[in-house]
Design brief:
The structure holds 2 protein chains of 2 kinds. By secondary structure, chain A is an alpha+beta fold. Chain A folds into 3 domains: 62 residues, no CATH class; 68 residues; 150 residues, Heat Shock Protein 90 (2-Layer Sandwich). Chain A contains 7 helices and 8 strands. The longest helix of chain A is centred in the first third of the chain and has 30 residues. Chain A is elongated. Chain B is of the alpha/beta class. Chain B has 2 domains: 117 residues, Response regulator (Rossmann fold, 3-Layer(aba) Sandwich), CATH 3.40.50; 105 residues, Arc Repressor Mutant, subunit A. Chain B is built from 8 helices and 12 strands. In chain B, strands 2-1-3-4-5 form a 5-stranded parallel β-sheet, sandwiched between helices. Chain B has a 5-stranded antiparallel β-sheet with strand order 9-8-7-6-12, with helices on one face. In chain B, strands 10-11 form a two-stranded antiparallel ribbon. In chain B, helix 2 packs parallel to helix 3 and helix 6 packs across helix 7. Chain B is globular and about 50 Å long. Chain B starts with 8 loop residues before the first strand and ends with a strand. The chains are: A alpha+beta, B alpha/beta. At the A-B interface, helix 3, helix 4 and helix 6 of A face helix 1 and helix 8 of B.
């Protein structure tokens, strides 16, 4: 947000110097000049173009655009983090197995409400532990290289999303290119790609309020295929944006939304393992666009 | 559910005392006789002394881990059914679990009733001698599967399959005539659940059916049990 101010810097400076000169607080030398109309217009045009270009550059920098990536961390840090997660996961799993085994031995007449609640919480923790394992697993498992039709995958996902109760009050739309040729396939693991795209759509649905729009659009971009999941949801706080792909990070507005905080981290890892990139653009109060880009499968690749 | 007349003796090996001490009474209530060992060495001693009917073996243990126990057991020609409790979701570990001749495995954290279900299934299919899980090549009529080279052949002709479809086929062939729910296949082959997981399994089954020329209405290999899962029909034997 602060950087938006930079756009006004040249104009502000000119104003200040102009006032100083006008008031006579600075020596205000008189410049006598003779020029032709052509040069004057040329100089004016040049000045305006420069200001426009500078403004444009600053604007685009200030735009809440952020490429998520563990790549921002050093390799050593990433390895450290993975080791930590692996150990944490290991500990969690043993404790959870023990708690589940202990719960089943409770006498039948135990307070069933309390036991029920405990079971629910244990199940939640088990889901978290599974998700952690997925993350670690994804780092190392070999990625299959089958030809995956993203268009078919997305059509299936939209069908699934539309059956969810919250979908009825939100406008969901999928745009697939058909002309002059359909979306080329990508090479990868069908199930992982399905999971990644599912998580993105699921996130949108979760954070959007009734009446919001969700647009899923795909396009071919040279040798790449881009899938964008855009919504008119609440958007992401600019300070949260760089942390979205982090494990267990929960943004400001996510507090009241159910979720484990590993969804995007999973998407990010899957995308990276497919040699792709993920970008998020968001404006608070306006919405979010998550764009994932994969290399298209080479022709004749099987 | 009625168990065999003589109660089945189970050796439960886990280095976490709280897990063993809580699972044991549960399994005993379910009609088994349970002994507990806290590490690999103790497990080997207990197997020698008591020769249990089934072993539930944790993989990660201090001193002698579960896989080493299993390796030594199989090497000495002991084919007691083993259920491995795996910890790391690493697929190589899962694949390894089968290679070394574990009869089944379960990912932690599991619900105790899941373990009970596996134990019952393993006992039901256990037979004397080397289990299918310890064999490299499996055959069912014209269909052959080499688990080491990851190749399947139909009437001697190689069948092209994705790695996942092959793993599904492997799991189904190792558990012939047994109802394999989609959840179980997911746990075994994918290692973790997916959204719309059912579809993920169905896609692979469809691929297998196409590749094996198997008719849905009169299947030779893969039968769909509506509302339950899949089953490999036909007699699977080991090829030496």
């Amino acid at each position: 947000m602060k950087r938006f101010g930079l756009v006004l810097l040249p104009a502000g400076l000119a104003l200040v110097i102009g006032i100083l000169w006008q008031q006579g607080w600075l020596p205000n030398p008189i410049i006598y000049t003779r020029t032709d109309a052509g040069s004057l217009i040329f100089l004016l045009g040049l000045a305006i173009s420069l200001m426009w270009a500078a403004g444009r550059a600053i604007w685009s920098l200030a735009w809440n655009r952020c490429e998520l990536g563990l790549a921002q961390l050093g390799e050593e840090q990433v390895a450290l983090r993975r080791r930590f997660i692996r150990r944490l996961d290991h500990e969690l799993k043993n404790r959870l197995t023990a708690i589940r085994a202990a719960l089943i031995n409770l006498p039948q007449d135990s307070n069933s409400r309390v036991v029920g609640e405990m079971r629910t919480e244990v199940d939640r923790l088990a889901v978290l532990s599974t998700d952690l394992r997925k993350l670690v697993d994804l780092e190392t498992r070999p990625i299959e290289q089958e030809v995956v039709d993203l268009a078919a995958l997305l059509t299936e996902l939209i069908g699934m999303a539309q059956q969810r109760p919250e979908a009825s009050s939100r406008h969901l739309e999928l745009t697939l290119p058909r002309v002059p040729w359909p979306l080329p396939p990508v090479a990868g693991d069908r199930d992982l790609l399905f999971l990644a795209l599912h998580n993105l759509i699921d996130n949108s649905l979760k954070f959007c309020r009734p009446g919001d729009m969700i647009e899923i659009r795909t396009f071919e971009d040279g040798p790449f295929i881009t899938v964008e999941v855009a919504d008119t949801g609440p958007g992401v706080h600019p300070e949260d944006l760089p942390h979205l792909g982090e494990e267990l990070f929960r943004g400001r507005i996510t507090q009241e939304v159910e979720g484990g905080g590993l969804g995007l981290a999973l998407v990010q890892t899957i995308v990276q393992r497919h040699a792709g990139t993920m970008r998020i653009r968001s404006r608070l109060g306006q919405g979010t666009v998550v764009a994932v880009r994969f290399p298209a499968a080479r022709q004749g690749h099987a | 559910m009625v168990e065999e007349q003589t109660p089945c003796r189970i050796l439960l090996v886990d280095d976490q005392p709280i897990i063993a001490s809580n699972l044991a009474p549960y399994l005993e209530r379910s009609g088994f006789i349970v002994t507990v060992a806290a590490d690999g060495e103790a497990a080997l001693r207990a197997i020698e002394d008591a020769s249990p009917d089934l072993i539930v073996l944790d993989v990660l243990m201090p001193r002698l881990d579960g896989r080493e126990v299993l390796r030594r057991l199989r090497k000495s020609g002991n084919w007691t059914p083993v259920i491995l409790l795996t910890q790391v979701g690493d697929p190589t570990e899962r694949a390894g679990a089968l290679d070394e001749g574990a009869d089944d495995y379960l990912n932690k954290p599991f619900e105790p009733y899941e373990l009970l279900a596996r134990i019952r299934a393993v006992i039901r299919r256990s037979r004397s001698g080397k289990p299918l899980a310890a064999c490299r090549r499996l055959r069912c009529g014209p269909l052959e599967l080499d688990r080491l080279t990851r190749r399947a052949a139909l009437r001697g002709k190689e069948v092209t399959l994705t790695a996942k479809a092959l793993s599904v086929l492997e799991y189904l062939m190792l558990h012939p005539n047994e109802v394999c729910t989609r959840e179980r296949l997911l746990d075994a082959v994918w290692g973790w659940d997916y959204p719309a997981a059912t579809r993920a399994v169905d896609v692979r089954i469809a691929e297998l059916r196409r590749a094996l020329n198997d008719d849905t209405d009169s299947p030779r290999f893969l039968e769909t049990l509506i509302g339950q899962g899949y089953s490999f029909i036909g007699r699977v034997e080991a090829v030496s």
